[in-house]
Design goal:
The protein is mainly beta. The protein has one domain: Beta-grasp domain (Ubiquitin-like (UB roll)), CATH 3.10.20. It has one helix and five strands, in the order ββαβββ.
Length: about 70
C-alpha cells in the first residue's frame, strides 16, 4: 500500500514528502531549516507545526533580510 504524500515546492522544484506529519519534519528530512523559510499553503501563510495532508502543495520561501 502506497503511503499518502504531500509536496514541498522550493524554487520550482517539487519534493515529495510524507503526509500526516508536521511540516517541519518534512523540511528537516530534506535539509531545510525551520527558521529560514516562510511556509505557504493555498496562498496562505502557515506555521511549520501544521500537519501535511495528502495532496498538499506547500511552498517554502526563503526569508530574506537586510538593510
Amino acid at each position: 500500500m502506497e503511503k499518502p504524500q504531500a509536496t514541498l515546492i522550493y524554487k520550482e522544484k517539487s519534493i515529495p514528502c510524507r503526509a500526516n506529519t508536521p511540516i517541519w519534519k518534512g523540511m528537516k528530512a530534506h535539509g531545510f531549516s525551520r527558521s529560514a523559510f516562510l511556509i505557504v499553503r493555498d496562498g496562505e501563510l502557515i506555521t511549520d507545526d501544521e500537519i501535511l495532508k495528502a495532496g498538499d502543495q506547500i511552498e517554502i520561501i526563503p526569508v530574506v533580510s537586510g538593510g
